[in-house]
Amino acid sequence: MSADPRAWRIIQAALGYCEANFRRPLRLAEVASAVGYSPSYLSRMVSSHLGYTLSDHLRQLRVSAARDLLENSEMTISEIARSLGYADPAHFSHAFSRAEGLSPKGYRERLWGR
């Protein structure tokens, strides 16, 4: 796919939708519907233009917000997971660990020296 301005507008709209809604469960089909394209087309467009997927973008938004909550709140790991759209705290911990190289608990312990 070419890097035409129309494609970039669609991608920006999809990224913006993710940024506005990442704190709740969010699926590719919902993002695609919000920007008026099929999930497969939007996924290919994002991947080919950005080199990463919408799921990767969503995960990064959530991990960034999780770091902030781990650093600046006393919310439990389960509360943080739920506040970021994860139904399963274990899934959140796995995603965070993959991105940061340690678990949310380990991240907080290293930060707070506990």
Number of E strands: 0
Low-pLDDT segments, ≥5 res: none
CATH class of the largest domain: Mainly Alpha
Indicate the percent of residues in helices: over 70%
Q: What is the structural class?
A: mainly alpha
Using the coordinates shown, work out and report the CATH topology of the largest domain. Arc Repressor Mutant, subunit A
Number of helices: 7
The CATH architecture of the largest domain can be given as: Orthogonal Bundle
**Fourth-level CATH superfamily of the largest domain:** Homeodomain-like
Distance between the termini: 50 Å
Order of helices and strands: HHHHHHH
Please state the overall shape, judged from the principal axes of the Cα atoms. elongated
**Nearest-integer average pLDDT:** 94
- Biggest sheet, in brief? none
3D architecture notes:
Helix 4 packs across helix 6. The chain has two domains: 48 residues; 55 residues, Homeodomain-like (Arc Repressor Mutant, subunit A, Orthogonal Bundle), CATH 1.10.10. The longest helix is centred in the middle third of the chain and has 19 residues. It has seven helices and no strands. By secondary structure, it is an all-alpha fold. It is elongated and about 50 Å long.
List the keywords:
Arc Repressor Mutant, subunit A; single chain; 114 residues; mainly alpha
